[in-house]
Write a structure and sequence with these properties.
Elements (H helix, E strand, L loop, with lengths): L20 E5 L2 H17 L5 E5 L1 H5 L3 E5 L8 H25 L3 E5 L2 H13 L11 E5 L11 H8 L2 E4 L15 E3 L3 H4 L6 E3 L5 E4 L4 H19 L7 E5 L2 H14 L6 E5 L5 E3 L1 E5 L2 H8 L4 E5 L3 H11 L8 H6 L6 E3 L5 H13 L1 H18 L7 H6 L4
Parallel strand pairs: 1-2, 1-4, 2-3, 4-5, 5-6, 6-7, 8-12, 9-10, 9-13, 10-11, 13-14, 14-15
Helix pairs in contact: 4-5, 7-8, 7-12, 12-13
Amino acid sequence: MTAFPSIPDEFPRPRGGDLDVLVVAGEHSGDQHASELVRALVAGRPGLRVAAFGGPRLREAGAQLLLDMTAFSAVGLVEVVSAYPFYRRLFAAMRAWILRWRPALVILVDYPGLNLRLAADLRAAGLSRQGGGETAVIQYVSPQLWAWKPRRRFSMARDLDAVGVIFPFETGCYADTTLPATFVGHPFVNETHAPPVRYDPDGPVLLLPGSRPKPVRKIFPALVEAFARYRCQDPRRRALVLHTGGSVHAELYRLLAEYGDAAKGVDLRPVGEGQAGGCAALVSSGTMSLSVALAGIPGAVVYRANPLTWVMGRYLIAGRVDHLGIANILLKRQAWPEYLQGACEPEALAARLRACVEGPEPRERALLDAAELREMLSARPGSSPAEWAASFLP
């Protein structure tokens, strides 16, 4: 069960009195992306006063951390329902603090469930420019309107002053609204920290089943069986599974124990403990698939879900996207072959691994595709996240 911290009766007052920028980033990835933005923003404007509801990376970047939002998360229906009283108190406390100290700029980073509601509330309270006030409220990292809930763009146009998108095609998602959408580059390309994976021809096979327990439970068995079949021909090769810890680690450990000898050569390691080198990758559709693609690691995108969930999901995204892997969506082709639902079966995946490890063509193709992606996702001159955000400051 998720442990939630106590919410103080009052968050600290801003250092130095007036507040220039408030950042709200509710997850580890948002904390990382926001820290890069804040570091560049402060470098361009020394003396800028920044506070944050975020995490340790934002503190390291120079923001006054009001509450560590990365210390808790609610995943799954039961957890969300049980956490509702906590989030209600948190939201009320955040809102009261913002209304009291009235920052010149509020930067909402990803986390749309909380952030878009906060934007609506600040407009209704008359604080934001959209509500007749003086505070600019902007969203960095758009919700994936191209896949889910596209009608949110209209409420976003009502409540936000601007949105900074990380995929170039996302500007078009707002073409029929009044909301200015600016492509600011993808953080995986713009940021200075080392990516989580890199290509290593002598390294292990990367098995990356995702960051949530339910998808891991569905996907990981196919990956283990595929590697076991591949390893029959190359018994010295090992596999590395990157995980996010907690319940995901427990689920992976349990599944490996069930497979026993069939899981020989498979190692587990937390994400964040340095770069992981790999010769090929079987990766769940999601952000890690983009990291693999940008690293030029050949492999495949895999996905399995409950049959009803799969049918409903395909219905909801029908006509919006033709692929599940983010790199494939960007390139408009299956640069990384997709093995989805019934096609996600061990023999086919083992054959793909053999092709990626033993022949030069998949690696050469992956390198070319990675270069194309990097060019596509790089920020345009004058439109980095920090430059975009600074344009809303007095």
